[in-house]
Design a protein that fits this description.
The protein has about 425 residues and is mainly β. It contains five helices and 20 strands. It has helices at about 5-10, 15-25, 115-125, 150-160, 170-175, and strands at about 30-40, 55-60, 65-75, 80-85, 130-140, 140-150, 180, 190-200, 210-215, 235-245, 245-255, 275-290, 290-305, 310-325, 330-335, 355, 360, 370-380, 385-395, 415-425. A hairpin with a 2-residue loop joins strand 10 (about 235-245) and strand 11 (about 245-255). Helix 1 (about 5-10) packs antiparallel against helix 2 (about 15-25). It is globular, with a radius of gyration of 22 Å.
Length: about 425
């Protein structure tokens, strides 16, 4: 059914004025329905003496969404637009795994860790929790405010090729994860959909398109003048260059006063009143060779907390997509996260800690990991496809990377899973 007709039909079910509004503003309904089933071997549990984690089958729906959007021409090449996109959870409430989140937190949600954020956000059923904004665009570009993907997240997909989340997902190893956050949340994650932001996307000039994002600090309006970290802010910038079969991208993101490496001490409370600077950049490219598309991506991330030290990590990915013939397609990728470095080490836990998916140990090493995937896809139509494949994560002796949706194993343990999926768009 035509999207515009669908929108008018939905609006007509409520009131005649709504139909008129839909006609005037060209409202459309759209969405993605995706379900993924995997069966995985999780490996050794991190708690000593408790044996292997159970082999588990997991249902996930990362990327499933329903939204509506509209645009009104104002004349002179200028238009105003809006978009409201929400997660579509097909499994029912309360069953989502903590690793495959695609939600936005509101001011009422406490965010002490990624896990608590995930559970709270999933149970809240937030409306417009995915890319949602209102803005104006014209010959000078597109400026808008809302909850939106930062350039690293938005642009890396063009060269990463394979999925970012779910059991296929490479983003945890590349960028620490991928989800929606407020300021001061999940400082190890640089593939972010950021709340409460001002955004700009330029027109395309000779194949080059620029983008930028900056968050507001409204969530910290109660901070006092001596609370340095009460004014956490993120900003990012990116550039894409497209020329026929070639795509190049470079992006940067900075987190001010997220205090990712902060830790409690017995003699001081100053760890909540010191400045911190976290940043990341990536560079990548993709090229279309007939039916084969190949991509490569490299990223570097750095954290610096004035009181407790600094840490960094780099990672890279190489991937390919081969449209064999007719409805048949094969995707494959290899991702490598190097060991974390820097002088940051926690005061407890033997100088080793895991923040998000990263393990920090003062640069001792053995904190890297690798992941490879292969996926066969069969396209039933231009909008619908099914897939079957395999993924495996291997950890260095002190690393605890996991397959998306599964529990982080003990340091050095490996995980693997067989995966099938079905996806349709409308």
């Amino acid at each position: 059914m035509n999207k515009k007709v669908m929108a008018l039909a939905v609006a007509g079910a409520f009131a005649t004025p709504a139909v008129a509004l839909a006609q005037a503003s060209n409202v459309q309904i759209y969405g993605t329905a995706y379900v993924e089933y995997s069966y995985g071997h999780q490996g050794l549990k991190s708690t000593a003496g408790n044996g292997d984690l159970v082999n588990a089958d997991v249902l996930q729906t990362p990327g499933s969404a329903i939204g509506f959007k509209g645009e009104e021409a104002l004349g002179g090449g200028l238009s105003v637009w809006f978009q409201c996109e929400s997660t579509a959870e097909f499994r029912g409430g309360g069953t989502q795994n903590t690793a495959d989140v695609k939600f936005t937190a509101s001011a009422g949600i406490s965010l002490p860790t990624i896990v608590s954020f995930s559970k709270a956000a999933q149970n809240s059923g937030i409306f417009c929790g995915r890319n949602s904004a209102v803005g104006m665009k014209g010959s000078l570009g597109n400026i808008f405010i809302g909850n939106w993907d930062a350039p690293i997240k938005a642009n890396s997909g063009g060269v990463r090729i394979v999925s970012e989340t779910g059991a296929w997902g490479t983003q945890p190893m590349l960028f620490g994860g991928s989800s929606s956050f407020m300021d001061q949340a999940a400082g190890t994650t640089f593939s972010r959909r950021q709340n409460s932001t001002i955004n700009y996307i330029s027109p395309v000039w000779n194949g080059v398109q620029l983008s930028g994002i900056v968050s507001t600090v409204g969530a910290q309006i109660g901070a006092t003048t001596n609370a340095t970290t009460g004014k956490a802010r993120m900003w990012g910038a990116g550039a894409n260059y497209t020329n026929g079969p070639l795509l190049l991208t470079v992006n940067y993101e900075r987190h001010n006063n997220f205090n990712t490496l902060a830790q409690p001490t017995t003699n001081s409370t100053a760890d909540t009143n010191v400045s911190s600077t976290d940043w990341a950049w990536d560079i990548g490219g993709a090229y279309q060779f007939g039916p084969v598309r190949a991509g490569v991506l490299y990223t570097k991330q750095y954290w610096d907390q004035a009181q407790f030290g600094d840490a960094s990590v780099s990672a890279w990915n190489i991937a390919g997509d081969w449209k064999i013939t007719g409805p048949h397609e094969v995707l494959a990728s290899y991702t490598k996260a190097n060991s974390t470095s820097g002088n940051y080490a926690p005061l407890t836990g033997g100088g080793v800690t895991t923040i998000g998916v990263r393990t920090f140990n003062g640069g001792v090493g053995n904190t890297g990991g690798s992941m490879w995937t292969i996926e066969y896809q069969y396209w039933f139509s231009k909008r619908t496809r099914g897939s079957l494949g395999y993924t495996e994560v291997r950890n260095d002796a002190m690393a605890r990377y996991n397959i998306g949706g599964y529990t982080s194993p003990a340091g050095g343990a490996s995980q693997n899973a067989w995966i099938s999926s079905l996806k349709t768009t409308f």
